Amino acid sequence: MSEVEFGADGLVRCGWSDGSQLYRDYHDQEWGRPLHGDDALFERVCLEAFQSGLAWITILRKRPAFRAAFAGFEIERVAGFGDKDVERLMADAGIVRNRAKIEASIHNARVARDLGKSLDELLWGFAPAAKPRPRALADVPAVTPESTALAKELKRLGFKFAGPTTAYALMQATGMVDDHIADCWVNVRTR
Prior knowledge:
Shape: globular
Number of helices: 9
Strand order of the largest sheet: 1-2
Helix content: 40-55%
Largest sheet: 2 strands, antiparallel
């Protein structure tokens, strides 16, 4: 994988986006762009947890099925899931059928529902100050002090499958940080 990818359209992209059109679309339209809203952020929390140990392309391919299976990731609806829903999800070949991650997503919905403040406010409260874009993929960290602090707070609140690496991937995906390579054409503003 190169540092940047020159697309057929002549645009320079981050090198990780060259694997498929699905990756390119995700890179160009979503990754690193500020995302707000409790349900939208809850979806990303869940998908990042499901991605743990898997390639992100697997999650992208299954995202429509995840959305259908998890009621559009509406926190209130997922928080109401019970044992029958867990079994339904375990039987759904369209998603990643990992009982621990399924149960964690339902548990996390209940935690998010009962926070006493918005999930958006909680997560974005850990967004670091803007910094220059990395020059190379090797300059992109897997963990930062902010992601470690976010993971610690999520754990304290009762969230599951939200370690420092997962928290940083969430920060990247939702635009809390801009880790597009400096030469990448995508221009995003954090916050």
